[in-house]
């Protein structure tokens, strides 16, 4: 299935573009069939491997020690400040659990990230809040400007929240 198409096809009608995509999709199906046949003839079986994950005991310990502080810290609206707060909580958790899990620093770190993800997910799904405190239907203001660099053939600046992008195009001769 086609997920998304983004194009500036101003020279042809939308119907022609849709027809071209439908034809391309049919050809892609044929190519996929050939690949599957090739795999069936010469492919190797998938290799089994043991699943390695964070021990449940460590994840539970991190949850007990840090969930409330993580839940509070990630709601900071200012992203740099939020990152500072989360880094401080993470360092504190690693210090607190170092003695209990001396050879599992990586697991403690992975558990911290999993607990952070769980807290963010709960806030989004249960409370309708994003990490910076915005409601789901709120969007940050966007600022765009084109032609910002006089000597380039094309340039644009885009800013939304903490994201900034400068695009520049120079054509060769």
UniProtKB/TrEMBL annotation:
Polyribonucleotide nucleotidyltransferase RNA-binding domain boundaries: 57-135
Annotated SUPFAM superfamilies: Polynucleotide phosphorylase/guanosine pentaphosphate synthase (PNPase/GPSI), domain 3, Ribonuclease PH domain 2-like, Ribosomal protein S5 domain 2-like
Domain Exoribonuclease phosphorolytic stretches: 138-171
GO terms, biological process: mRNA catabolic process; RNA processing
This protein's GO CC annotations: cytosol
UniProt feature coiled coil, ranges: none
One Gene Ontology MF term: polyribonucleotide nucleotidyltransferase activity
A Pfam family this chain is assigned to: RNase_PH
Membrane spanning stretches: none
Gene3D superfamilies xref list: GHMP Kinase, N-terminal domain, Polyribonucleotide nucleotidyltransferase, RNA-binding domain
Keywords of the record: RNA-binding, Transferase
Protein name: Polyribonucleotide nucleotidyltransferase
Species whose genome carries this gene: mine drainage metagenome
């Amino acid at each position: 299935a086609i997920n998304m198409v983004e194009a500036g096809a101003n020279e042809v009608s939308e119907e022609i573009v849709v027809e071209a995509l439908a034809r391309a999709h049919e050809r892609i199906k044929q190519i996929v069939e050939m690949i599957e046949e090739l795999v069936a003839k010469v492919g190797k079986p998938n290799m089994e491997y043991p699943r390695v994950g964070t021990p449940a005991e460590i994840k539970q310990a991190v949850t007990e020690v840090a969930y409330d502080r993580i839940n509070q810290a990630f709601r900071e609206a200012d992203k740099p400040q939020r990152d500072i707060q989360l880094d401080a909580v993470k360092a504190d958790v690693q210090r607190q659990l170092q003695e209990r899990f001396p050879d599992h620093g990586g697991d403690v770190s992975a558990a911290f990230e999993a607990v952070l993800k769980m807290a963010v997910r709960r806030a989004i799904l249960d409370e309708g809040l994003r990490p910076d405190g915005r409601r789901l239907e709120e969007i940050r203001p966007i600022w765009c400007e084109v032609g910002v660099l006089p000597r380039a053939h094309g340039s644009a600046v885009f800013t939304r929240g903490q994201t900034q992008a400068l695009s520049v195009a120079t054509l060769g001769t």
